[in-house]
Predict the 3D structure of the following.
Amino acid sequence: MLSARIAVRPLSGAGGAEISGVDVARTLDAATVSVIRAALNEHCVVFFRDQDLDVERHKAFARCFGEIFVHPLLREANADPEVVMVRREPGDVSYFGEAWHADTTMCDEPPLGTILYGIEVPPYGGDTLFANQYLAYETLSDGMKKMLSGLGAVHSHGETRSIHPVVRTNPETGRKMLFVNEFHAKEFVGMTEAESRPLLKFLFEHGNRPEFTFRFRWRKGSIAFWDNRSTKHIALGDTGPFHRLMRRIQIRGDRPA
Ligand SMILES: [Fe+2]
């Protein structure tokens, strides 16, 4: 039975919604899962506060939405291949997620979503910014939309490469989104990197326009669950003297179309 207390509260005009009235560590019924899934489709990222999730409950929550995705490049590095610990120490100059990106899009079937849980969170700093790629697509001119339709882009990381459509459709809602990100998209199919660069640069910057973005301020016990298809995100590097520790579990996705 659906909890009578569940509420979905939008956080900004561009996206993001906080869901309250759900204890994520408990076994969730189908009605609750379907409210969360619908909110994810509508708001692109859902947030939960004051949750107490050990690794097994974190996995169980992820499995409500699909199978757990195993990162091909981190498989060897982690004790548990289904879990990535994201750590930041005082004085770190380089860190995980420091440029706008969507996660792991060099794979043929990039993750549908990512569930990040705050274990150790600084008193301030280390916020995550998100950008809504439905809005990015919908605000392009008709001429640009026409040019991009049918165009593919090469996404890569290390030796792993995949080709994805530049405009992707959410199969659950039929809504179209821009699907290129700074970290992985290197060139358009059939064009050189130099030829691709100016238009890719435009699309990257357009996708990050302030009016498409929203920002999440972490607390210990917070969860951000983002739709990795319809958003890009960036981790801010302003944690200064503080430690930050998060646990990440990803959900398997389909082949973008
Ligand atoms: Fe990321």
